[in-house]
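#structure-requests
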Amino acid sequence: MLDLYFWTTNNGFRARTMVEETGLPYNLHPVALPKKEQLSDDFKKLHIGHKIPVLVDDEGPGGPINIPESPAILRYLAIKTKSPLIPADARTRVEMESWFSYGVSTFCMVVAQYGHFHFRSPEDVPGAKKFFETYARDMYGVINERLAGRDYFVGDQISLADFAHYADVRMYKDSLKPEDYPNIHKWYERISARPAVQRAYEPI
């Protein structure tokens, strides 16, 4: 059985979506970040870095295993289930890895800073707000260009690269609007219609 320790952040939803995509049974354990539950001694036993998400697999390689960090969770579950979310074709797989890395490192971090300075920072820092919005919109332009004539980031079917980007696009859909970028908008609607994605965003 899988146990997912989760909160309603970009990274949390990225991991929950992946678990739903696998179809594997799991228990969902909310870790309320506003209450700082991630700093509890019990949670630190799961991940010394006191961050969500954490996936616990009782049937991991060699026995029970804890997997923190959403990119690691996505890759772990794809490998565990032999999922086509990792393309079989070698060239397509290399492309997927490149866009997966772009999503979970470059894009995710810039959008997170955009979100912090626009919505969560206790201080109004106009310079930082302008910088990260400009940076984020530039990346949206890159992604929009990548998706031109494509249903998904790589190949002809969904892959980890799509889930690397989706949670961040969805989190800020009311300010960095997908409909302002035609190719992103079509892609976003396509991913949003997936039953597993809809289940992942059900209220906890």
